[in-house]
Amino acid sequence: MRLVLVGPPGAGKGTQAQFISAHLGVPKISTGDIFRANVSQGTDLGQEAKKYMDAGELVPDPVILGIMKDALSTPAAAKGAILDGVVRTVPQAEGLAKLADELGRKIDKVVLFDVPDDEIIRRISGRTVCDKCQTPYMGREPGTTCAKCGGKLVRRPDDEPEAVKTRLNAYRAQTEPVIQWARDHDLDVIEIDATGDIDLITKRAMRALEP
Ligand code: AMP
Predict the structure, then answer these.
(1) pLDDT tens-digit profile of 20-73?
(2) Pocket residues: Cβ below 6 A from ligand 1
(3) How far is the CA of 6 from the centre of ligand 1 (A)?
(4) How far apart are CA 163 and CA 125, in angstroms?
């Protein structure tokens, strides 16, 4: 199954992508995770991406298209993939469609996670993330230990209020048009109510993904 997950920052895409990936047995690909791993390893890609990420801006399309190509061409992704936040602009969507064509693959569904802005702000202000394995946590203080890998929980620089505002604006201006683009190209767009408990959201997502 090949899924493209779309939603505003703080919609819980990353968390749900982990569940969906485990449930379907296909890898999750997250450009945000790839960038954070590169930032912590100090690579050239990490240094370039960090400038945009810390400000809450989108990394330029050509960089994303390169990563998309590498990530989707791996043997692990041949059976399917959950693309978490990988497509955030119409040119990226066009790039993905072209790449899928070249690789002889199909995008099964575009999954949109719906959350109102006030809920996003509330969630992001309570969020920390493991600096090693990237697992996100709610209501756990920075400096505490990741239950999964023993790494340290940190606050993402782009979760600071000014950056969150910029990310929300980027979402409305650049990412929301991807939904219309997908509908115009006859892709199957499903909307999930991403408010409420994490478990409840997972259930809604699983139900919506049933054949
Ligand atoms: P995320 O963890 O998915 O919220 O991504 C963190 C940051 O990485 C975003 O705020 C962007 O700066 C950058 N980023 C991740 N994926 C993309 C993408 N597909 N297009 C542009 N920027 C991206």
Answers:
(1) 999 999 999 999 999 999 998 999 999 999 999 999 999 999 999 999 999 999
(2) 9, 31-32, 35, 52-53, 56-59, 64, 85-86, 88, 92, 158, 167
(3) 11
(4) 12
